[in-house]
Amino acid sequence: MMKKIAVLTSGGDAPAMNAAIRAITLSCNYHQLQCVGFYHGYNGLIDDQYVEMEHFDVNPTLQQGGTILKSARCQAMLTSEGVIQACNTLRKHEIDALIVIGGDGSLRGLQAIKQHWEKQVIGLPGTIDNDLSGTDCTIGFATAVTTATHAIDKIRDTANAFERIFIVEVMGRHSGHIAFNVGIATGAEAIISFENFSADRALQKVTELLKAIDKQQHTHGSFLIVLAENLWPGGAQALKESLTEQGKVDSAICILGHIQRGGSPVPEDRNLGTELGLAAVDAIITGQDNVMIGREAGKVIATPLEQVINTAKPVSAHWVNAHQQQLTHYLK
To answer: Which pLDDT score, from 0 to 100, does residue 200 have?
Structure first.
């Protein structure tokens, strides 16, 4: 009997989710498997927003941002009633395997489904935050870094023209991968992220920044501070006010926000989404279950969901040290 594979996207959207959906659909078609989708993430699974997926639905989607299956965050999946209703929908449609593309919360939801549903579950890492273990890069991360880098390059132009100080806040939830990759790529004078800052050091950090800013302004240059979101007490505005109060330094704030989640995915993400989507179907055919498919050191791997969820993925010490060596120049 033909296997029926379902796919949904959950949580924050990430560029190249569509590439993964496309690869799953086309691979199912190649292997003569039936592919179906559920709109609006786990909400659509609970509410039975079911759609059959065909190759003509996904062929022109590689270059599109967002997700053609839509996405959402689902509070009902935090309750046993919501999880059981999701499983009932899967049984109603005689689904043999479920693929979920999303981040940490989405994979937790998939793990909850596995506790009440006897069929195969496969996760794919779809988040711009790059905070999932079991893969070097998550689907969407490369595009988010590229988008933020291009934006900050433009900010640098006007900062140089006016010799101004800019505080640029980037996304990443509780991870510094975007902050460090973008900060180093743009030559930011300061990167403030989870790996090199804690709230109890705010006063010390402001003093450090003021010293670096003073030295940089003597060379008639701009000064860029890349700040990870959800980190500084009171946010970017509070940092700006501290610089003004303690050092009479004026600065401008630019919060990049959701532009980092949108836009056409870069080739790296399109290829990663395609590779992992194909591998997800292969994993189902070979009987794998309760795993996330990722890529490490150039190889596709499968990691147990529990391990992915419970293993932290900090920014490498190499990146943190690379920035510190640059910052030290301004503190001498």
So the answer is: 95
Give the side-chain half-sphere CA count within 13 A for 253.
15
Which one from 13, 104, 129, 131 is the annotated catalytic residue? 129
The answer to whether 212 touches 189, Cβ cutoff 8 Å, is: yes
Mean pLDDT (the chain) is 94
Element (H, E) at 236: helix 235-247
Tens of pLDDT along 75-85?
999 999 999 99
pLDDT tens, 34-57? 999 999 999 999 999 999 999 888
Mean pLDDT, range 57-72, rounded to an integer: 94
Q: What are phi and psi of 160, to 5 degrees?
A: -65, -40
pTM of full prediction above 0.85: yes
Q: What totals of helices (H) and strands (E) does the chain contain, helices first?
A: 12, 11
| Residue 221, pLDDT score | 82
Where does residue 206 rank: exposed (0-12), middle (13-18), buried (19+ CB within 10 A)? middle
CA torsion 201-206-208-209 (nearest 10°) is 140
DSSP 168: E
Contacts of the segment 244-248: beta carbons below 8 A, 24+ positions apart = 246/206, 246/207, 246/210, 247/206, 247/210, 247/213, 247/214
Band of residue 318 on the pLDDT scale cut at 50, 70, 90:
confident
The answer to whether residue 214 is catalytic is no
- Note whether 309 and 58 are within 8 A (CB): no
SS3 297: coil
DSSP designation for 243: H
Q: Write down how long the chain is.
A: 332
For residue 237, the 8-state DSSP code is H
Domains and CATH numbers, the chain: 4-140+265-310 (3.40.50.450), 142-261 (3.40.50.460)
pLDDT of residue 15: 98
